[in-house]
Amino acid sequence: MSKGPLLEVKDLVVHFPIGKGQFVRPVDHVSFSINEGEVLSLVGESGSGKSTIGKALVRMIEPAEGSILVGDRDVAHIRGREIMAYRRDAQMVFQDPFGSLNPTRTIEQHLAFPIRKHRTNRSVSVDKQIDELLEKVGLTPVSETRRKFPHELSGGQRQRVAIARALAVNPKFIVADEPISMLDVSIRAGILRLMNDLRRDLNIGFLYITHDLASARYIGNRIMVLYGGKVMETAESGELIKYPTHPYTRLLLTATPGNRQRGPLPETSNSAPNLLEGRVGCPFANRCPLVSDVCRTQDPPLVETSAGHSVACHHPA
Ligand SMILES: Nc1ncnc2c1ncn2[C@@H]1O[C@H](COP(=O)(O)OP(=O)(O)OP(=O)(O)O)[C@@H](O)[C@H]1O
Ligand SMILES: [Mg+2]
After folding, report:
1. Is the CB of 26 under 6 A from ligand 1?
2. Does CATH place domain 7-89+171-311 in 3.40.50.300?
């Protein structure tokens, strides 16, 4: 099977008005691609713009600039019915599986709805497709699961239903926005393994959004580190963990148990990045232990320093 790019995002900008003619820009010229059957892990602390990127990809929000190429079609500015049709390609799974399921509907009803709405395969009955989906996500015996309501399932099982619902339309890629962070630690690995099976068996591409570098590495083929709406560093997962070059990545790593190869880097402040449109310099400058004058006046470009490893820093380690 070919492993070409499913999705290519170029110079994506998202901004929101905050009054008095001002805008915040939580996504600022972000570019990346996701191949078939590949997981790209998007890592960054709260407010770095991860969910905003995810929502732009599935077109819950419209970007201000840039392109989102799916195949050879740019979906950045599609509207209305085109967006509904695009849902067949692009699905999103959220952090809170309870909030995303309707408490008055059975699991069967949750799955029947998207299957009927986007039905492409009429040779298989809706009933059979529901059974197949539940089996695929490990919710067996399926005849029991079908009749249950969300409150009768555990958090992990509910997240599996949310994943099954995303799969119901045969998507090309799924944005999984912190899908395990509200689950018990003991069942997190099972959900990550399920995503890995889907990647491998169905060739689905994933954007896996997380705070945590350990799970980013566990499931991601590549990792992209985001701060203040900009990509700080991106590389193949093993490479990024072993040879982090951006001071922010190194900081994140020091907060990850078992990863102290580079030694801790002292944090100089924990102020939030300035997201105002028109700000200048590196978004991490205020907190960076290696900051110099140039960092405050010039935005460092993202530069490839070795094959597949890029960093945006005036002073890479
Ligand atoms: N609709 C909106 N209007 C104004 N500002 C917004 C809007 N949506 C997001 N933002 C701002 O954009 C920034 C990035 O938000 P986003 O939700 O993408 O962060 P995140 O990385 O997903 O954070 P978390 O880890 O907490 O989920 C935040 O400062 C947020 O306040
Ligand atoms: Mg978020």
Report:
1. yes
2. yes
For residue 64, with 0-12 CB atoms within 10 Å meaning exposed, 13-18 middle and 19 or more buried, which class applies?
A: middle
Centroid of ligand 2 to alpha carbon of 102 (angstroms): 21
- Cβ neighbours of residue 195 closer than 8 Å, sequence gap 6 or more: 39, 163, 176, 179, 206, 208, 219
**Separation of alpha carbons 134 and 168, rounded Å:** 10
Residue partners of 125: CB distance under 8 A and separation at least 6: none
The model's pTM: 0.94
Does residue 225 contact residue 43 with C-beta atoms inside 8 Å? yes
pLDDT tens figures, 205-242: 999 999 999 999 999 999 999 999 999 999 999 999 99
Closest atom of ligand 1 relative to the 18 alpha carbon: 4
List the chain domain ranges.
7-89+171-311
Which element (helix H / strand E) includes 162?
helix 155-167
Please give the Cα distance from 278 to 76 (Å, whole number): 22
Under 8 Å between Cβ of 243 and 234: no
Q: Which residues contact 147 (CB under 8 A, 6 or more apart)?
A: 106, 107, 108
Atom nearest to 54 CA in ligand 1: 18
Mutate to test the pocket of ligand 1, among 18, 28, 48 (most ligand atoms within 8 A of CB): 48
Q: In sequence order, what E strands does 106-221 have?
A: 173-177, 205-210
| Contact criterion met (CB below 8 Å) for 231 and 220 | no
Alpha-carbon gap, residue 233 to 248, rounded angstroms: 9
Half-sphere exposure of residue 188: CA atoms within 13 angstroms, side-chain side = 17
Condensed to tens digits (0 to 9), the pLDDT of residues 137-189 reads: 999 999 999 999 999 999 999 999 999 999 999 999 999 999 999 998 889 99
Backbone angles phi, psi at 112, to 5 degrees: -65, -35
